[in-house]
Amino acid sequence: xxxxxxxxxxxxxxxxxxxxxxxxxxxxxxxxxxxxxxxxxxxxxxxxxxxxxxxxxxxxxxxxxxxxxxxxxxxxxxxxxxxxxxxxxxxxxxxxxxxxxxxxxxxxxxxxxxxxxxxxxxxxxxxxxxxxxxxxxxxxxxxxxxxxxxxxxxxxxxxxxxxxxxxxxxxxxxxxxxxxxxxxxxxxxxxxxxxxxxxxxxxxxxxxxxxxxxxxxxxxxxxxxxxxxxxxxxxxxxxxxxxxxxxxxxxxxxxxxxxxxxxxxxxxxxxxxxxxxxxxxxxxxxxxxxxxxxxxxxxxxxxxxxxxxxxxxxxxxxxxxxxxxxxxxxxxxxxxxxxxxxxxxxxxxxxxxxxxxxxxxxxxxxxxxxxxxxxxxxxxxxxxxxxxxxxxxxxxxxxxxxxxxxxxxxxxxxxxxxxxxxxxxxxxxxxxxxxxxxxxxxxxxxxxxxxxxxxxxxxxxxxxxxxxxxxxxxxxxxxxxxxxxxxxxxxxxxxxxxxxxxxxxxxxxxxxxxxxxxxxxxxxxxxxxxxxxxxxxxxxxxxxxxxxxxxxxxxxxxxxxxxxxxxxxxxxxxxxxxxxxxxxxxxxxxxxxxxxxxxxxxxxxxxxxxxxxxxxxxxxxxxxxxxxxxxxxxxxxxxxxxxxxxxxxxxxxxxxxxxxxxxxxxxxxxxxxxxxxxxxxxxxxxxxxxxxxxxxxxxxxxxxxxxxxxxxxxxxxxxxxxxxxxxxxxxxxxxxxxxxxxxxxxxxxxxxxxxxxxx
Length: 759
Ligand code: PLP
Fold this sequence. Notes:
- This protein is of the alpha/beta class and about 750 residues long.
- The chain has 24 helices and 31 strands.
- β19 and β20 (about 535-540) form a beta hairpin.
- The protein starts with 9 loop residues before the first helix and ends in an 11-residue tail after the last strand.
- Mean pLDDT is about 90; it is low at about 425-445.
- Bound molecules: pyridoxal-5'-phosphate (PLP).
- Pyridoxal-5'-phosphate binds near residues 112, 113, 114 and 253.
- Pyridoxal-5'-phosphate (PLP) binds next to α6.
């Protein structure tokens, strides 16, 4: 369906979709290559510490002058477990220093720790022979974004919220919430970064020991990602002890020593796991690179690698951390903020409680000013539950030179202040189909029920062959088959619905359908645009080429003609070229008041597009799977659920995965909705495809006659308590179009335009 030259496999699509890690690396790469001055407070690149650079230079000269070492470094394939002398030396060093009973058989090298996580997570989690899905548990988030997408299948990561301890009026610390950490047999491994990226949090020895004993009791390994930590490069500012035993998998790397280019990851684990890693590496890489191991071997042999951390690397970053913190605190004076305790790595994690814009928007504004930080929302892999905190944090690296850091922090503080002081939406730049730099403020007040809708009277309604495969609700051989009766029936049904709504006091704006291009589904405008209370008009990426033609350039003008203010256009249609789709409020069921976006995945609803939209609008995505009775994915979320101000109608049987079901229902319950359940028969009759609106006499619930007739008496009575039930018979549209009343209504949530002041 997309314009791609290469038709990728499922796995291919899985690994080429946009990921947080790619976006971050892309932004960094572009910033570095662009020549413009960019203050790089974003990346995970280590600092260029002169003493380390001098050591590397000296060692490279030594290798160049030593034919044997040079041969080992670049002329021979190493074993897939990695260079043996290096592994031997490392086992010896760790055994001597910490008393760990290690041999070279306990150590495997990889192409960087990112590669280690790919191998380990897929070895230890995923679907197992008995069909069960096992996951890697991140006991506290925020956590390293690089864990998010390494699974060859989705849903590999499960995560928990931490407890937030406010350690002073300007600082805080995340603690593992052990009360919320029961391990079930769905967990295949536990993983923590220590120090954590993005927060610099160092789990205490006792937290780590407790996690290790939980993991041991559950007979799963504890993976400790020590990329920044212990034993090397040792960027830990307080007291902490490294941990290893046969139930622990310790992942290390040469990157943060100052050698990210050599791509050397180190895994210390039970020999059985090392053997499995070796076999996978042989398939993936044949061998592991030897540049890093040969370069670093003498420092391991002599123990210098540990001393370098203590003597040079750790104090270097500790001093920078103190300076950066001082500057940031000064610059942010008067703004509500907290900085996570600076305990290690080289990041400051800034929390801005009550930030009036999403952190993704702050990131974009800063990028425009030439400052690159990272939006915190990336760092909650596996934590699907709504949590405003996710959108209130940014990660700032202080690894750059002090002047860059100081200038970047001053600009950051200025933008933060503007966000707190300014109106919810400002400096609108893009319009008319361009991508707007401004996402909506999460605090812009929005009612759930719109007082007005836009409808498009169909000029050429009919069954759409391009959408039939994914829409199991379409019945092309249904009751109204000949073209003449369809041409008569569809507009008549349309008018009946529009009249019924108007009678109930809903403002209905009707746009006439067009003669050309011929768009058989144009009666369902809610799929290609949505409107929002801050004046945002969103255009969506559509799967079917003939549905893309429904987008009309006169829409904005029509809305403005009716007195609405369109302040910005967020055009996501560019995602179509990448095969990513999101069909408006068909794919999304929005809880506008609580800023939750429910989305069931289908050919028409790509999780990546959901996340993109949510980041732009400051919504919390709740993405899940839902199938009809025959196991086919439900094409649009709005046929299986509807969210009103105080109620939600949900065909919960369609959500087959227990965790997904709990997530969806839990979020609805948490926001105080009364749940009205419908079954498969009601679903087929479009009883889920209803919409709450605001009418002249109070709330209105619009649904089709067929849907109303199918509703069980109890459900019907429950619904009637929440609004006047307004119906029309739209059989032809339902049968041939595979959509019902809700699909025909594009709510207008835009603000009214202010009258133009007299000149
Ligand atoms: N682990 C954490 C916590 C990281 O932040 C990073 C990279 O920034 C890595 C691992 C990956 O390091 P490597 O360069 O060894 O792949």
